[in-house]
Structures are given as C-alpha cells and as structure tokens.
C-alpha cells in the first residue's frame, strides 16, 4: 500500500509538471501603482493610458494611478499602451495579496530643437512580452530609411539631426526573433518643430562674475512645461577642452534661479544652457535646448 501511495504521488507530480502548476485561484492578488512618462530628467504622471496585466486591463487616472484585481500570483506580463501603440512591456513576479508596481515609460518619438534651424529626432521601440527585436527600420516622410540599434535592451532606438522641419508619418518596421514583424506609424506635426528657443539673459556670455551663488536670469517660451539649467565646469584645457557636467537643475521659477552654495567655485570656468520641455505626449515629445554660454568666477 505504501509503495502504491508513493507511486501515485510521483505520478501526480509528473502530471503537474506536464500541464503546469496553477498559481492559485484568482481574486487573491492585485496590482496597483503609478505610470509616469519621462525624458531628459523630467517625469510626469501618464493619464488615460491602458495598463494590461496578462488578460486584464484598466485605464490610468489623471494622476497616472491604476489598479487591477482578481489576478493570479506568479510571473505576469505588464504592458502599457497609448493610442493603440505599445510603449512598455515587461514581466514581473506577483506575490499573493497586494503588489505595488510603478511603471516608468519613455516616449516613442522625440523632437529636440537645439539651434535656430537644427533639430534632433529620436525614435524608440519596445518588443512584445517574451520576444526580442532583431532589426528595426524607421522610414521618414521622404522615404529615407534609418536602421535602429539596441538601446536599453530589450528597447531599440535611432536618432539623427535635421536642418529643416520634416513633419509627417514616420513608419516603424520591427522584426522579432520569432520571425514575425510589426509595422506602425508615428505622426509628427508641423507644430512639433515650431518651438521657440529659451533665451539666456544673465550671466552674459564670456563674463566674469564675483559670486559663487549668482542668480541666473532667462526667458522661457509660454509653451514650457518644465525647464532645467545645464551647468558644466571646465576640468582640462585642450582642443576641445574637457567639461564635467553637473546634475541637471530643475528650475522652480520660469524667469530666474539662484545657484545654491557649493556648486560653483572661485577661479573656475563654466558654461551653461537651458533645456525646456514642451509637449509631453507619449507618442511625440518635444524639447528645446539653447547653445552654451560661458562665464568665469573670479578668485
């Protein structure tokens, strides 16, 4: 009888291995959290996005929060889409009870204006859960093609510079490791290129200042959502010289900002620029960055 029970238990275990283990009845596990969209050190809650966990979905609130209940514990695929486009896909392990899963996503396309007639375009692609990208092609409205490259795997990306606006549909062609392919488009509008650059007012370019806590003054476009001071210290002379970047400073005033003590040092040379965030759409994000201007702090 004992031998029979052991055989029966062994057979039952084999059946479980073959058909898969039930990770527990639904209703005992839930997931909640916040979805944020971000680029260039700036993030904001993403509202009205679709969050999916396995076969269940919900829409984020105005604050970017979400909750999905009646799930099973174990490995689950978490995805986020906006306007029918997938912008996030990743697996996570769910424990019984309440789980907190905060999600950070990047826009699929960005437009950065960095001079009067210069823009940088960047495009990002994320594969479906359980798959990897083997090749990606971006085709612009003029039918010029660009090969994407691995970025933060599994994400791929491609960026390039242009000297005149090129609005229209940009086509993605994404090849996956199961020999399938995805084709979709992102539309970049005329107004996405029509960005006013910020203006640097003080310190004046190539000036000598006497304080290590100056008040920087600037003018930001009315469409600005957020802005950062980008500050670098010269650490080595040369052609070109070497610069050390300070962490970006998020300004809390759209006209002036006083630099905190300990950032600037007497006898050092610096350069600064202003980077402003404008449109924060998950499919097309826009920014502007001034050219650098230079100043020194007296001994």
Please summarize what this structure is.
The chain has 299 residues and is mainly β.
| Beta-strand fraction estimate | over 45%
The number of helical segments is: 1
The CATH topology annotation of the largest domain reads as Immunoglobulin-like
Kindly state the percentage of residues in helix.
Answer: under 10%
> What is the second-level CATH architecture of the largest domain?
Sandwich
What do these coordinates show?
This protein has 299 residues and is mainly β. It folds into 3 domains: 79 residues, Immunoglobulin-like, CATH 2.60.40; 84 residues, Immunoglobulin-like, CATH 2.60.40; 99 residues, Immunoglobulin-like, CATH 2.60.40. It is 6% helix and 54% strand. It has 1 helix and 27 strands. Strands 10, 11, 14, 15, 19, 21, 22, 23, 25, 26 and 27 form an 11-stranded mixed beta sheet that branches. Strands 1, 2, 5, 8 and 9 form a 5-stranded mixed beta sheet that branches. A 4-stranded antiparallel beta sheet has the order 4-3-6-7, with no helix packed on it. Strand 16 and strand 17 form a beta hairpin. The relative contact order is 0.14.
């Amino acid at each position: 009888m004992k031998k029979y029970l052991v055989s029966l238990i062994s057979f039952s275990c084999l059946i479980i291995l073959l058909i898969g283990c039930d990770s527990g009845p639904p209703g005992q596990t839930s997931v909640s959290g916040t979805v944020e969209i971000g680029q260039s050190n700036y993030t904001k809650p993403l509202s009205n996005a679709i969050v999916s966990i396995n076969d269940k979905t919900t829409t984020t609130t105005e604050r970017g929060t979400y909750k999905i209940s009646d799930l099973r514990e174990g490995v689950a695929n978490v995805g986020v889409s906006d306007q029918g486009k997938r912008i996030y896909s990743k697996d996570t392990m769910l424990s019984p009870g309440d789980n907190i899963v905060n999600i950070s996503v990047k826009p699929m396309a960005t437009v950065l204006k960095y001079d009067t007639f210069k823009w940088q375009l960047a495009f990002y692609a994320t594969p479906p859960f359980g798959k990897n990208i083997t090749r990606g092609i971006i085709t612009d409205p003029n039918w010029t093609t660009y090969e994407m490259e691995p970025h933060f795997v599994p994400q791929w990306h491609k960026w390039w510079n242009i000297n005149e606006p090129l609005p229209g549909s940009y086509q993605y062609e994404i090849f996956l490791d199961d020999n399938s392919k995805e084709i979709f488009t992102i539309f970049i509008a005329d107004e996405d290129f029509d960005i006013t650059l910020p203006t640097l007012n003080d310190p004046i370019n190539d000036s000598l200042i006497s304080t290590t806590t100056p008040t920087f003054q600037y003018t930001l476009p009315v469409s600005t959502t957020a802005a950062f001071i980008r500050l670098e210290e010269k650490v080595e002379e040369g052609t070109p010289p070497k610069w050390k970047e300070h962490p970006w400073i998020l300004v809390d005033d759209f006209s002036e900002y006083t630099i905190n003590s300990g950032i600037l040092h007497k006898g050092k040379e610096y350069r600064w620029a202003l980077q402003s965030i404008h449109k924060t759409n998950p499919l097309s994000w826009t920014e502007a960055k001034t050219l650098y201007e230079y100043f020194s702090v007296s001994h």
